[in-house]
Design goal:
Layout lengths: L11 H9 L6 H8 L5 H14 L4 H8 L4 H11 L7 H10 L5 H13 L6 H10 L3 H14 L5 H6 L5 H11 L5 H10 L5 H9 L7
């Protein structure tokens, strides 16, 4: 019996890319077979093609989120940020992924939750924004809280104005979705930030001093 690789062209990834655009004999079957191929590179190509073709259901995405290959799992979460999700179970699984041992998995999970405006993730995102060891994760969590735009996430965003410069800049952008005295006070303080890009971000909001 031929192996999966023997059914592909000389360049396996090229055949999978073509299948992702609907070319070849039974492209969806080919992509599905290679989702479990041992080669990470081929699995990722197959995953991207499957996402493009849109034939995976939420249950299958849930299974993919439990994959032991961290590089593959990173791509799963990246793609979920742009996919229509029909069940809270899958979104809740993204909340769990905020605590993944791999920082890039956690960072991408925060981004995805912000893109899907999943309010049930707010507390977990606020905790990440305040306490995560990796600055990329804190920044992504702050951005997600800004996307949610809920008052209960405001304290964590304001606290981020005392973090590293990229996170402070992200916090300014997040504050654009809020109004009120606490926001005005935070922006006023940020006008004198030591980082010029933070100061510029405040100016770009178009909120005048003492408004």
């Amino acid at each position: 019996m031929q192996s999966d690789d023997e059914t592909l062209a000389e360049d396996p990834s090229g055949a999978l890319v073509a299948a992702g655009h609907g070319h070849g004999d039974d492209p969806d079957a080919l992509l599905r077979r290679h989702l479990s191929n041992g080669d990470t590179r081929l699995r990722v190509v197959a995953l991207r093609g499957a996402a493009r073709r849109g034939f995976l259901n939420d249950g299958e995405w849930l299974d993919l989120l439990d994959d032991p290959d961290v590089e593959f799992r990173r791509d799963v979460i990246r793609l979920l940020a742009y996919r229509t999700i029909n069940t809270d179970e899958l979104l809740q699984r993204l909340v769990v992924a905020l605590g993944d041992d791999d920082a890039l998995v956690s960072e991408r999970a925060a981004f995805a939750l912000g893109e899907h405006h999943f309010s049930a993730a707010l507390d977990a995102l606020a905790t990440m924004a305040r306490d995560h060891d990796d600055a990329r994760c804190r920044e992504s969590a702050v951005a997600a809280l800004g996307a949610l735009g809920e008052e209960s996430g405001l304290s964590a965003i304001i606290a981020a104005l005392d973090d590293k410069a990229p996170i402070r800049r992200r916090a300014i952008v997040a504050l654009s979705n809020f109004e009120g005295p606490r926001v005005d006070e935070a922006l006023e303080r940020a006008r004198d930030d030591r980082d010029w890009q933070v100061r510029a971000a405040v100016t770009q909001l178009g909120r005048h001093e003492n408004d």
